[in-house]
Each structure stands twice: as structure tokens, then as C-alpha cells.
Amino acid sequence: VQLQESGPGLLKPSQTLSLTCTVSGDSITTSNNWSWIRQPPGKGLEWIGYITYSGSTYYSPSLKSRTSISRDTSNNQFSLQLSSVTPEDTAVYYCDRDSGSYFSGSYYSYYDYWGQGTQVTISS
Predict the structure, then answer these.
(1) How far apart are CA 28 and CA 81, in angstroms?
(2) Given this model, what pLDDT does residue 55 score?
(3) What pLDDT is stored for residue 107 in this prediction?
(4) Which residues lie across from 33 on neighbouring strands?
(5) Is 58 buried (19+), middle (13-18) or exposed (0-12) by CB count in 10 A?
């Protein structure tokens, strides 16, 4: 399974960040959840959200108002849009496959395949 992020690496404040993840070796409509995660410089990983194999979406509460994840099933791709970006959105953005499962009523993520990551810088 391979995932590859693509999209602009430099944006200005207030613009909308748009990234696409192209998946090969698995179908985004068969199983698993397909996630976006980012890592700001000097900080830990931050989960942004995911789209399920059936097309449902879930977002981090802290980013939900600015985030949209969609998919293009014909090209086996899923995409991230983050609106009204600020310099605090500067990070390496990763797409990944989450093959986690439910246990005792709670969902436990397991990120088994990752893209290489793409640097996105927000600067005026």
C-alpha cells in the first residue's frame, strides 16, 4: 500500500489549504479509514480528521469549523481542505491509512501506512 500527498507548499494567511492523497495498493471504498495528520515544527502529531470507506467524515473538534475531507473514488484519492489558514497551520501534512477497530465501545486507531509527508508553510 502506498500513499502520496500532493498540493501547494506555500500559502498566504486567509487562503485555503488543499491537499490530495493518492492511494495505491488498496481501495478507499473497501475498508479502513483514511486520515490526515499534521506535525507543526517542534511539536507532536495532530490528528485532523478522517473519511471512512463508506464516505462518512470525522474531524478534530479544534479544527472542525475549518476542515473538509472529501474523496474521488474514481481516482482512489481523498482530499483535505483547511480554510482561513494562519502561520499556526504551518506543518508537515501526512495522509495515512487507519486500520483500527472498536473494542469495548471505543475506537482505537492503528495507522499502518503513511504518505511521506508534505511541508506546507503559511507566510505572508
Answers:
(1) 18
(2) 95
(3) 86
(4) 52, 98
(5) middle
Q: What whole-number distance in Å separates Cα of residue 117 and Cα of residue 91?
A: 10
What type of residue sits at position 106? S
- Per-10-residue mean pLDDT, the chain, length 124: 95 97 96 96 96 95 97 97 97 95 88 96 95
Q: Are 75 and 62 in contact (CB under 8 A)?
A: no
Longest CA–CA span in the chain (Å) reads 47
R_g of the chain, CA atoms, integer Å: 14
DSSP characters over 27-39: -TTTSSEEEEEEE
- Tallying the residues shown for the chain, one arrives at 124
